[in-house]
């Protein structure tokens, strides 16, 4: 039996009200699997990681509902295949 595990990585740009930037950054720091990579001029760039596109989408939806967020848009998504196993033996790696 094959076990192909996927790991999804996405970048997103979040547009925020300038007066809300600090509170949005604080809220983002509390979210699991979200890392802030840059902020300024009403925009925040984040990376979101998870086991599926659905998890990434749910996280982005949560971000979009934070007070002070104008828009949250996924920019890029990458999927890595972590490993493949056949009968418990690893046959390849990403």
TrEMBL record:
Record keywords: Chaperone, Cytoplasm
Pfam families in UniProt: NapD
Main location: cytoplasm
Organism domain of life: Bacteria
UniProt-annotated location(s): Cytoplasm
Family designation: Belongs to the NapD family.
General function of this protein: Chaperone for NapA, the catalytic subunit of the periplasmic nitrate reductase. It binds directly and specifically to the twin-arginine signal peptide of NapA, preventing premature interaction with the Tat translocase and premature export.
Quaternary structure annotation from Swiss-Prot or TrEMBL: Interacts with the cytoplasmic NapA precursor.
Protein name: Chaperone NapD
